[in-house]
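Problem 12. The chain below contains 332 residues. Write out its predicted structure in token notation.
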Amino acid sequence: MEKRALTLTVIVKAFPLNYDEGYGNIAVAKKVHRGNGETYLFASRQSIRYSIAGWCFENANWKRAVLHEAGEGNKKVIQLDPTPLEKKEYYFEEADLFGYMITVGNTRTRSAVARLTHLISLEAYYGDQEFLNNKGFADRLTSQKRQELGGPSSNGKDSNDVKSVDPNLANIETGYGYYKYTLAVDLDRVGEDENFGIHLDKAEKIKRVKDLLDAIKFLYRDIRGRREDLHPLFVVGGVYPIKSLFFHNAVNIYWRGSKACINRESIEQVLEVIIPDKESKSSASRKVRDYTKIGIQKGEFGNEEDWNQSPFEAIEALKKDVEGAFNDGHDS
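Solution.
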């Protein structure tokens, strides 16, 4: 097939989704600092990939790749076991879409076909913290000790002499706001792996890309006892004849009173960009707008205006475009 690509930029709303190594009793959220002095929370692409793959394992019947340790002593590394791939027993979805490095025998690598950006906050972080304790456990342990002691004992102590157990204390950096991330998939590389002579049929290729889109529709992330809802509140993207993260740096928000608004002007600029037609010698060609689907959750933002599709409807339309991309190609 032609070198077509899927790209989709998503806005979600959540509490912090990824943490760094803390210090003392403080859990530190991942963050970056900008030149203007502002701080932004983020979640690594690896953490989002983990949640997407986890959803697919649970809901899309993906098979977990067989792993093993390569190397010796303290230089062992965990990687894919190449045996099932060499025998063509099964071409695991995570190996296909997210790539691998296998160092057993001849080193074989596959760069990711489905790539993710970091998930970055669209709102500055102001140092909010949440105080935590396990007072419930402490009170129960106090009660348990008093029950075990019962009434007066031989040493003259009774249950009333048992001091209350102090709870353990902790602080966790927190915040609540909008984040964005982008998924990009090289459609021409899905299900094609020359390292092992693998060429999947068209139906399986389409299913694997659709699985990723379904995961984005219903995504959540389990983190520190919370289950954060990451279903999309806004999406913009499409299937394009060239590979580019068209909208990642164009999607931003601003505030109109208490309501967040999408920066439509920057998105409109991208929509008007002309994509050169590789098959034509003339400069006239289609615009980014002609390939793009936009979805927005009603009532969430202050400037919905003529955007009428929901994020779920836009993703369903994208799934049809994915089918069309493969059906227009020359794959079996």
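Discussion. The chain has seven helices and 21 strands. Students who got a different answer should revisit the alignment rule from Section 12.3.
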